[in-house]
Design brief:
The complex is a heterodimer of chains A (about 270) and B (about 325).
Chain A lengths: L1 H24 L1 H29 L7 H22 L5 H7 L2 H5 L5 H7 L7 H18 L5 H32 L6 H12 L8 H10 L7 H7 L12 H25 L7
Helix pairs in contact in A: 2-3, 2-7, 3-7, 3-8, 4-8, 8-12
Chain B lengths: L1 E15 L4 H10 L3 E15 L3 E5 L6 H8 L7 E6 L2 E2 L4 H5 L2 E5 L11 H11 L4 H15 L14 H13 L5 E5 L7 H18 L2 E5 L3 H7 L2 E6 L2 E7 H8 L2 E8 L11 E6 L2 E7 L5 H11 L2 E8 L2 H9 L7
Parallel strand pairs in B: 3-8, 3-9, 6-7, 7-8
Antiparallel strand pairs in B: 1-2, 1-4, 4-5, 9-10, 11-13, 11-14, 12-13
Helix pairs in contact in B: 6-7, 9-11
The chains are: A mainly alpha (about 270), B alpha/beta (about 325).
Amino acid sequence: MLSSIKHYTSVTWEYLKLSILTVFEYPANMIGWLISNPLQFIVGFATIQFVVKEFGDISGWNYGQLAFLYGLAIISHALSMIFFVQGWFMGFFVIEGDFDRYMLRPMNVLYQFCFTHFNLIGITDLIPGICVFVYGCIQVGFVFNLRNIVALLAILVGATFIRGGVYIIIGSSTFWTKSVADFGGYTQEFFDKTTMYPLSMYPESVQFILTFVIPIGWVSFYPAAELMGLSKDAFMPGVAPLISLGAGAAVFAVAAVIFYMGLKRYESAGS
Amino acid sequence: MAVIEVKNLTKEYKVNKKGKGLGGAVKNLFLREKAIVSAVKDLSFTIEKGEIVAFIGPNGAGKSTTVKMMSGILNPTKGQVLINGKDVAKKRKEVVMDLGVVFGQRTQLNWDLRLGESFELLKRIYRIPNDRYEENLRIMNDILGINEIIDIPVRQLSLGQRMRGDLVAAMLHSPSVLFLDEPTIGLDVEGKYAIRKFIKEINRVKGTTVILTTHDLGDIQELCERLIIINNGELMEDGPLREVTERIAPFKTLVVEFYDGETVEHEKAELFYHEGNIAKYRFPKADITAAQLIEELSAKKEIKDVSIEEAGIDDIIRIAYQGGNEKI
């Protein structure tokens, strides 16, 4: 077990090193994303500002609280982009036979799928996320004490795994459909609409689904409500960050099971 | 000791039968007719330690499917593959520690970075101790001159250089079994020479068992003592090159040069080539000797020159690919 952890850690560092070297190999690529990615979120946030100015609030959340939620959502989005963006492109791996090489190496296939390429471009999403989040923190007077920091970390880890798990579940469908589809656009649209705004603005049936069936509510909405002490929207007060973490583990476990069921049907590609 | 045991290996795919045109497509939507296609049928053979085996067959014969089942990429529908006694489908991670695989058509090297970075990664993935890693790189440098290209980004390597890099990558963890899927495809003469030399050397120095699929006759002739021919997913021939030749191509070719463009026929030999003054006759070794044939032909028409060709590897492959039942 210990030697296994050491093994995976050493390989992970090497993957990270190679990813950094690759970024340096193509610096212009990074600069392009550095301009376009933050722009996308800044514009999105400007839209919220407009809505709040016109209507006063969204589902009872004021401007500062919305910035807190929006920022938190972008940060976990960025983290999921760094670690799990491959899930969006699993169809290509299935059709092109790109799992062959992973199957030939003495390591967990899902681990290799996620970590062989760290997508450091995701950092360009992290920057606007942190900016908006810090702005929101100042607006709502969020205190960075030990308890809150631990809670934030738990939320971010859980949220990243919820997102990553969903990417992998959706991506794994291509083991059955055998069609190349880029799920990125839909997935991001779905997550943006459900994590960047208060869930309470949706009908109750949708809220129910996004709380218990696909636990998207735990990516940002419930934990943000708890951290800001919004008792109207808080759910499971006191343990919401832990539930985020647990939901992340659960979604990812389901994703791993589905992934390996799919991998059994893997047919490689004609040589 | 048997390094590889393939037992009753079968791979079936379910495919949907497709109806013609729009009507057929709509009908397919509701009534799915499944057809089962067998890519590999009940294949069995064993390979001993240190053998170099050519695995050949026409495109679509099931070679790649078999190699992929042997290396754990595909799950067999029936049957099993044991490598060093371990079931490949059940103990993937253990088996691949002792397996090197090179696909000629795709690389496992990191395209964007210098070649050496790919080796460093593999060192960690396979947990290769430092001294063994250095030792293997040294051996690989002796055979393939890898140090000349180790600092060049993979995308800038020529196909031949890249293939050298891939071979080293496959051998860094000292596997006892090496699968090469069309390793010489697209290479120039020098590139092919380097790859063949490499295969011979690691087989000699390290006793590595090598299984290669190829369409290159030179590869087979130079490297392989044993031939496994498959067609339509079934084993057609398995044996030493010479034995297979005797069995499926028991004939020789007599090349005759006449004084003019006219030729003569002979009932025991097939005139299969005629251009200008040159005629080629294929005759079964069992029915008639070359001396007899020359004598009888020259009785009919004056001969200027003759030469005799043994059945070559290309004849064997041609016949085997046609199903092995072609008359000479």
